[in-house]
Amino acid sequence: MVNDVFGRPLGSLRLSVTDRCNMRCGYCMPEESYTWLPKASLLSFEELDRLAGIFLGLGAAKIRLTGGEPLLRHDLPTLVRMLAARPSLGDLALTTNGILLEQHAAALKEAGLRRVTVSLDTLRPDRMLAFARSNRHGDVLKGIAAAGRAGLGPVKLNSVIIRGFNDDEVLDLLSFGREHGHELRYIEYMDVGGATRWRKEEVVPRAELLGRVAARFGTVEPLPDPGSPSAPAERFRLPDGTVFGIIASVTAPFCSSCDRSRVTADGTWFSCLYAEQGMDLREPLRLGRSDAEIADLLTQAWQRRSDRGAELRLGTPDRGALYQIAGLRADPRREMHTRGG
Ligand code: SF4
């Protein structure tokens, strides 16, 4: 097990398989055009699997496949099968916008995927069309249902709550999760990556979310999560047993227990969602460096890690979006859709 300077282990890895997405959510990809990673730079399944093996060898036990939209990567179940065959892997999950999930859920499960998290920010198709420029709301709902049927549960639903966009759906989204047996997680609107229009007034804070849920559904009981102390979501239970979560990255950051790092689809490794610079792992992979040599690079970098990006942002006066569009165009790896959110 490798620990950083604050004693946080290198525990979980978010592996991005593409920077492309078939939605344009306002908090992630609001622009008309983007600079994409060159195709030749994308890691092959063999390279991704090899990297995963090196991270697992350093003590990581959880891998989440991300994008962009990971289901846009052709033949993703093949990668899932390769990763799932690694005996030291404790958990293998996928975050998706759900549009293509119905057609892939059974194959992903059969290949060894354990769980999915689906983004669902609104229950209103017209709102999704306006906000995310997608008319595929029905497909997202079908994808969520298919994931449940395929046994990719408990299915988690991620809802980024933005004042003036969907804060009037806070309770309806939770009711949807309750009715369908899925765990809803509210996510505070973050200022990172492509959120170039972020304003702190649009963040609906954890305390307000809890107050509104309690006023409608009754006493909200915090749940300890001893199995996963580094998980970003705080979990809560309603009197009827419904469990939901809040990821309060803005008002109550959880950097002190953060064991997550991210690899972009072109093999750049970031030790924090807010990190300015990443480490290129593609070159050592392609130049024939051994697994032990790459493990050594990762170990040395993780032992120097002192990131606590969200906590530092909390103390930023007159806080606005972290990047403006010119900064993102200068380095597309700063984008959340490239970094894997
Ligand atoms: S801001 Fe960085 S250190 Fe803090 S929780 Fe997010 S990734 Fe981890």
What portion of residues is helical? 25-40%
> Which structural class fits the helix and strand makeup?
alpha/beta
Rounded mean pLDDT score: 93
User: Unreliable runs, pLDDT <50, ≥5 residues?
Assistant: none
Strand order of the largest sheet: 7-8-9-6-5-4-3-2-1-10-11-12
What distance separates the N and C termini?
25 Å
Bound molecules: iron/sulfur cluster
Kindly estimate the percentage of residues that lie in beta strands according to DSSP. Answer: 15-25%
Shape: globular
Largest sheet: 12 strands, mixed
The gyration radius over C-alpha positions equals 19 Å
Number of helices: 12
What is the β-strand count?
12
Q: Give me the strand/helix succession.
A: EHEHEHEHHEHEHEEEEEEHHHHH
Short description:
With 341 residues, the chain is of the alpha/beta class. It has twelve helices and twelve strands.
Task: Tell me what the structure shows.
This protein is of the alpha/beta class and 341 residues long. The chain has twelve helices and twelve strands. It has helices at residues 45-57, 76-84, 101-111, 125-132, 137-150, 170-180, 206-217, 282-286, 291-303, 309-314, 325-330, 336-339; strands at residues 12-16, 62-66, 91-96, 115-119, 156-161, 183-188, 221-223, 234-237, 243-247, 260-263, 268-270, 279-280. It has a twelve-stranded mixed sheet. Helix 2 (76-84) packs parallel to helix 3 (101-111). The chain is globular and about 60 Å long. The chain starts with 11 loop residues before the first strand and ends with a helix. The mean pLDDT is 93. Bound molecules: iron/sulfur cluster (SF4). Iron/sulfur cluster is lined by residues 253-255, 258, 260, 272-274, 307-310.
